[in-house]
Amino acid sequence: MAAANISFVKRDDGVYQLNAVGYGCPHVQIYTEKALKKLSSGEELEIIFDNPSSGSSIAFICKVEGHALTEDKNDAGTFTWRIRKA
What we know:
The protein is an alpha+beta fold and 86 residues long. Helices cover 28% and strands 37% of the residues. It has a five-stranded mixed β-sheet with strand order 1-2-3-5-4, with helices on one face.
């Protein structure tokens, strides 16, 4: 299996993507928090990950920080979630 590579890129105006496929807890949570700090209020972060337990951590971040979880897809074990920063 190839080593995982984290990526954080701007996809569109006000929309960023964090690809954390191949990473487990707590890495996905840590990278999500770091990415959200780079965003302005109202901008969106799309997170792609494949560790199911990371979803709980991401949902907790949203609840505590007041961010809106606007999308949560599961496609055969690869999760794509979208967060709008508070």
